[in-house]
């Protein structure tokens, strides 16, 4: 099995994991747009126990449009977003796919919050939903 690695811009936070993501997605919610400074956020979901992390993270506690807590974790030195944690899913971790050392295998399977999608964003052949699943 291949080990995948990633980290923040300055290298103070590093992570590794083995195995395939449970999900690869694009989120278009306004908070992800603001946090990423882009039109969307690219995420891969993994079991929490599959990921090894070194370095210090800072957490910003956010709330989704549905009111759920969203913990956005970033490097306190360079500010790079690295992980998202959702207390309602304590055994999961969402890695910001742009922080992977090799992004060539990222292939989104679904899009969330398409009702907030920027008009200029086109991601063909990836099914979407207007909000969160369920």
Automatic annotation (TrEMBL):
Pfam families in the record, alphabetically?
A: GFA (PF04828)
Q: Which PROSITE patterns match?
A: CENP_V_GFA
Family recorded in the similarity comment: Belongs to the Gfa family.
Supply the PANTHER family for this chain.
CENP-V_GFA DOMAIN-CONTAINING PROTEIN-RELATED, GFA DOMAIN-CONTAINING PROTEIN
Signal sequence residues: none
Could you tell me which residue ranges the CENP-V/GFA domain spans? 4-114
Read off the InterPro entries from this record: CENP-V/GFA (IPR006913), Mss4-like_sf (IPR011057)
Q: Print the keywords alphabetically.
A: Lyase, Metal-binding, Zinc
- Output this protein's name: GFA family protein
């Amino acid at each position: 099995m291949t080990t995948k690695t990633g980290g923040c811009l300055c290298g103070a936070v590093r992570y590794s994991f083995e195995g395939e993501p449970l999900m690869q997605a694009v989120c278009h919610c306004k908070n992800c747009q603001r946090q990423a400074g882009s039109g969307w956020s690219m995420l891969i979901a993994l079991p929490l126990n599959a990921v090894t992390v070194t370095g210090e993270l800072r957490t910003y506690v956010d709330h989704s449009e549905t009111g759920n807590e969203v913990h956005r974790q970033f490097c306190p030195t360079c500010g790079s977003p690295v992980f998202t944690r959702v207390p309602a899913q304590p055994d999961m971790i969402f890695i910001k796919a742009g922080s992977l050392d090799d992004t060539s295998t990222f292939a989104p399977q679904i899009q969330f919050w398409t009702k907030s999608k920027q008009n200029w964003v086109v991601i063909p052949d990836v099914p979407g939903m207007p909000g969160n699943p369920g």
